[in-house]
Hints:
alpha/beta
Amino acid sequence: MPVTIEDIAARLGISIATVSKALNDYPDVSPKTRKLVQETALRMGYQPSASARNLRRGRTEKIGLLINHSLTYISEYLSEIMSGIALTAEQNGKNIILYTETVKQPDGLIKICRSGEIDGALLLWANPTTSMLALMTYEKLPYVVLGRRVEYEQASYVAPDNVTGAYQLTCHLIERGHRRIGFMTRQLHGPTNIDRFTGYERAHQDAGIPIDPELIVNTEIEPNSGYNALLQLLDLPRPPSAVFTFHDLMAVDALRAASDRHLSVPEDIALVGFDGLRSSEITNPRLTTVKQPLAAMGQRAVEILLTQIKNPDMPPQQPVFPVELMIRESS
């Protein structure tokens, strides 16, 4: 049988309340009594109940990771950002609970907010809507949006500098002599899509190059999205000589489409991605991309969330992380 505080109290001939206070470092217990109780508990093999301790403190010591993407499409992105999340959570004595399907509807989100299962949430969502974020704010569950800027002013988020990254990537293509540069958008991703297109557009403006609207192709989250988008661009009367894909996995699809059309990359068409995932380093040719500091972003998101849990009235934190242009053979 596990040792209880009642057993310790009986051994020492003192009250259960005194034992509890001594084990939890209450100030109204003398140093001598506190030391005696703690040494006796250690000798007797007493193990405090984490659940009882957390209940007294009003904390679960658990953080929710809420994902509304298909895990198939973000597995590589998730594995990299999770390295920062898991390490920082572990260092602070927190556990991570993963939620997927339940976060896709308001009722499921409300259930999570009111369940008391977690102290706060990290949101890895394609495009967190203002209404969903306002709901979480109303329910008073601390949260941080992972990996993207949001337009809800009360939200904390951790994001890469998408505008600068897209600008540098497009400038690189222009410097290589390209004047017709296709762009694969992902309107579902809201502000992230806006920011990357802003960088693409600004680079053209600075170079005095007009953008042909036919070169802008929207994509959806579905198999072969990059493959089909590149074929659409290649079938134009005046196809592009380079294409900016929305992210690295879309660029991998596009590489396959170019190969199926018997085009050489970058000689016949240059292709670039965004995110800097590991897969961008093992394609043939290797992808030019913009690398996000995913592990550092995951770490910072947890740090902000833990601070919010301790200080619910703190103002929103919205750090934007610098990104790095990685020039490789595909451009």
